[in-house]
Amino acid sequence: TLPKVAWIGLGIMGSPMSENLIKAGYQVTGFTLEQEKLDRLSAAGGTAAGSIAEAVRDADVIVTMVPASPQVEAIAYGPDGILENAKSGALLIDMSSITPQTSVDLAKAAKDKGVRVLDAPVSGGEAGAIEAVLSIMVGGEQADFDAAKPLLEALGKTIVLCGPHGSGQTVKAANQLIVAVNIQACAEAVVFLEKSGVDLKAALDVLNGGLAGSTVLTRKKDNFLARDFKPGFRIDLHHKDMGIVTDAARNVGAALPVGAVVAQLVASLRTQGDGGLDHSALLRAVERLSGA
Ligand code: NAD
Fold first, then answer.
1. Ligand 1 pocket: which of 41, 136, 237 to mutate (most atoms <8 Å of CB)?
2. Domain boundaries for CATH 1.10.1040.10 within the chain
3. Which DSSP string corresponds to 133-195?
4. Which CATH class is domain 5-164?
5. What is d(CA 98, CA 165) in angstroms, rounded to the nearest whole number?
6. Is the torsion defined by CA of 78, 136, 278, 292 positive or negative?
7. Where in the chain is the domain with CATH 3.40.50.720?
8. What separation in Å is there between the alpha carbon of 198 and the centre of ligand 1?
9. Which of 131, 71, 132 is nearest to 97 (CA)?
């Protein structure tokens, strides 16, 4: 029989991901802060819990998908948290994108409670979550990875154990660096092409067929063309991730000269009130710099 699942955090990613588990036959009990997301889970065949403690009490596997390190710490620790209320032997799979150190510390604290932990952040965006084709970068022990693999296969397509606890987060930090720089490059090209009077749609189509092509260009093309910046992936979250990769790189002495500039542009969007927009809104930052 399939393990019983508790799912904490039913946002843009957590809702469709947990629904994919339900479709795969898993019994899912969820908890999140918004009542309408709990109603959505019930409508999809899951069970809405009134608290984290209630959600995790009978669970064999607990999945967390919340914004950042402070939220992971808030839901993991303390008398009402996951570690205090989970069964001994339960497997906690944290799929949030957080600092590698938070994952390492969580694994250590959980071990004392008999709870096994994997960090398993994802890439592929909302579309990847809905279609269950996410890339899942995992940190932790081989045996726990093997135990989690069938469940992760209901959520994603590329599922790789990257190393010990925290390694999944390190790889995700690199992912976020590449994505931000790629969006920035596309945004600069878009402004350049438009100012040059070239048909933008035609240009992006042909660029996407060559070496300049990318998943970013494929997925964000329509956002650029329509100036549609509904998230998707919020600038606020990418700001968090640029902070994670900047700190982690500094700790190991890796230089991120271009990443540092893009991190500043992401930060500038936030201070101008655009933190709630999709990260394709880096186009706005380039337009402002270009007087467009
Ligand atoms: P979101 O803000 O849409 O959802 C977060 C959810 O966490 C919300 O439903 C909220 O209720 C819940 N939550 C927060 N604090 C909680 C608490 N104390 N107890 C219970 N629930 C709590 O965010 P999202 O876009 O789904 O992103 C989630 C994580 O996935 C982030 O770490 C993000 O960086 C990462 N991620 C997002 C995307 C994307 O495209 N959106 C892609 C890959 C990775």
1. 237
2. 170-290
3. -EEEEEES-HHHHHHHHHHHHTTEEEEEEEESTTHHHHHHHHHHHHHHHHHHHHHHHHHHHHH
4. alpha beta
5. 12
6. positive
7. 5-164
8. 38
9. 71
33 CB under 6 A from ligand 1? yes
Q: Give the residue numbers annotated as catalytic, written as ranges.
A: 172
Tokens for 289, please give them. Answer: 């710099």
Atom of ligand 1 nearest to the CA of 126: 40
7 Cβ inside 6 Å of ligand 1: no
Ligand 1 centroid from CA 15, angstroms: 10
pTM of the model as a whole: 0.97
Compute φ and ψ for 132, nearest 5 degrees: 60, 40
Assess whether the C-beta atom of 12 lies below 6 angstroms from ligand 1. yes
The three-state secondary structure class of 212 is coil
Class of domain 170-290: mainly alpha
* Burial class of residue 255, CB neighbours in 10 A (0-12, 13-18, 19+): exposed
Tell how far the Cα of 10 is from the centroid of ligand 1, in angstroms: 7
Using CB atoms within 10 Å of the CB of residue 148, give its burial: 0 to 12 exposed, 13 to 18 middle, 19+ buried.
buried
Q: What does the pLDDT profile of the chain (292 residues) look like in tens digits?
A: 999 999 999 999 999 999 999 999 999 999 999 999 999 999 999 999 999 999 999 999 999 999 999 999 999 999 999 999 999 999 999 999 999 999 999 999 999 999 999 999 999 999 999 999 999 999 999 999 999 999 999 999 999 999 999 999 999 999 999 999 999 999 999 999 999 999 999 999 999 999 999 999 999 999 999 999 999 999 999 999 999 999 999 999 999 999 999 999 999 999 999 999 999 999 999 999 999 8
**Mutational test site, ligand 1, from 18, 31, 32, 136, max ligand atoms within 8 Å of CB:** 32
